TrEMBL record:
Gene3D superfamilies: 1.50.10.10
GO molecular function terms listed in the Swiss-Prot or TrEMBL record: hydrolase activity
Pfam families reported in the protein's UniProt record: Glyco_hydro_88
InterPro entries linked to this entry: 6-hairpin_glycosidase_sf (IPR008928), 6hp_glycosidase-like_sf (IPR012341), Glyco_hydro_88 (IPR010905), PolySaccharide_Degr_Enz (IPR052043)
Record GO biological process: carbohydrate metabolic process
UniProt keyword Hydrolase present: yes
Keywords from the UniProt entry: Hydrolase
Name the record gives this protein: Uncharacterized protein
Organism: Penicillium hetheringtonii
Amino acid sequence: MAPFLTLAYVYEKTGNMTYLPWLDGWAEWALYDLPRTKYGGFQHITYVEDNEQELWDDTLMTTLLNRPQYIEEAKRQCLLHIEYLFDTKTGLFFHGWKFSTAESGPAGHNFANALWARGNSWCTIVIPEILELLELEPNDPIRASATAGFAYGILKAVLRRYIDSQYRVVGEKAIQYVLHNVDETGELQQTSYGTPMGHDLQFYKNTPLTPMPYGQAMAIMALGEYLWTYF
């Protein structure tokens, strides 16, 4: 779904009507036909697995389209994902949650209880994005705060005054780390390979580090936000 957010922005810019059927078709599929978990959460389907009854923090990054009915659904999905993925001890998000299909026993589990770095960066990106879509009145109380140094979300949140400007230095440190890991060809290194749910923490430690398209996209977003802020 994420490429269609880009297509939506291109459509808004160009008004090219040939894009509209693709946007409508996929948006309607996400709203009405995408498999759901218990309580109506978006089941995180990948190109390899259906991941039955699984909520992933990745999903929040791929479901925001600027239309009223989609915004309402995005708000609901954010709240549902927070309910099952948020760790109250650390203020971070677990990688995923799986609803139990058993009639008795625990309601489900958070797999390895992994507070996965990239998953938390997805959440950091989403917080200012969905706040922007909500078009809140300036006097509405904003209580969103970033707890980790993820450059795009922090810098955008500072720019939009969702969080105090003192957090800008955290975003700048993250930018320096990103730049340090971009090689001479412009490719971001040190990105973990596609990561399904792990049943122990060693699984995450063993995931290969390699350039990946989503890593490139996130670097572009972070550096673009840095340029927007300072240049």
